[in-house]
Amino acid sequence: MFRTLTLCSLIFTGTVCAQGEGMPVTRSFETKIEAASMEDKHGAQVDPSLTFTDERGYPYQLKQVFPGKRPVLLLLGYYSCPAMCGQVMQAAFRALSEVELEPGQDYQILSVSIDPRETAATAKERRDAYLTKLAKVGAADGWHVLVGDDANIKTLTETVGFRYYWSEHTNQYAHPPALIFLTPDGRVSRTIVNTEFEPDDLHLALVEASQGKLGTIWDQVRLNCLTFDPRTNSYALAAMTVMRVGGALTLVGLAGMILYMLRRERRQTQPSLA
To answer: How many Å apart are CA 255 and CA 213, to the nearest integer?
Structure first.
């Protein structure tokens, strides 16, 4: 289970009303946290036939990107969110602006609203407000902002493990702050749950999601040596890797020492010339 970092769910009380009955239903704090969290769906396949509407008001089927040649960064939330969604998007765009890879050329960005009441006009307003925050030449072509009906939204969110709910108490959605990286054929490759992001982590997540189509040899070496830690939501040197490197260095050191001693002994046993 990924670490849950959701501001909305932290302020909720332990009692809400049953829908349509007006009777209080007690829910534990832990249950509410789990209801607005990321579920590990690594490898899950997104349905390319799902249909949404883009910021221009045109139909947008996910088959326009799946299967494709580029990985996709999926941002789920809603455009009228009072705080967290904007914070996550700003943090993501700030980090992506420092990544060498280019949107539209190397990867695609999709924002999808979880609120079926939002319209293409709302999506356009969000895009216009945040487009300049992604300091990349291909930002305009590499980012689409979508809205959709409840059925398509739920199918997509359930597939990628994005768990959320509407709170009558706060009059807003509770959901996790997550970036979801999808392979060119639409499979979940990596999920980073946080409200701040390191450019290097997003770079490696995109390279990893590209299935070898992006990045340098050094990037591949780092991915082989590093492991994604869901507790810190970043790539780090795995303990097993450290042990292996340490063991290899120890063996090299021992081999060098043995070779030195053998050569020294050979020199000492050789007869000196008169």
So the answer is: 39
Distance CA 182, CA 251 (A): 40
Same domain, 149 and 251: no
User: 143: which strand partners?
Assistant: 109
Cβ-proximal residues to 136 (8 Å cutoff; 6+ apart), any chain = 96, 97, 102, 103, 142
Q: Is residue 273 part of a domain?
A: no
Q: Are residues 227 and 242 located together in one domain of the fold?
A: no
E strand spans, 101-171: 108-113, 143-146, 165-167
- Same domain for 109 and 21, yes or no, is yes
Report the SS3 class of residue 46: coil
Q: Hey, what amino acid is at 196?
A: E
pLDDT at 265: 67
Task: Please count the structural domains in the chain.
Answer: 2
pLDDT at 10: 37
- Closest Cα to residue 142, out of 112, 165, 110? 110
**Does a structural domain hold residue 82?**
yes
Same domain, 228 and 264: no
Q: Is residue 57 scored above 70 in pLDDT?
A: yes
pLDDT tens for each residue of 230-269: 888 788 876 444 445 445 555 666 666 677 666 766 766 6
- State which H helix or E strand residue 274 sits in: none
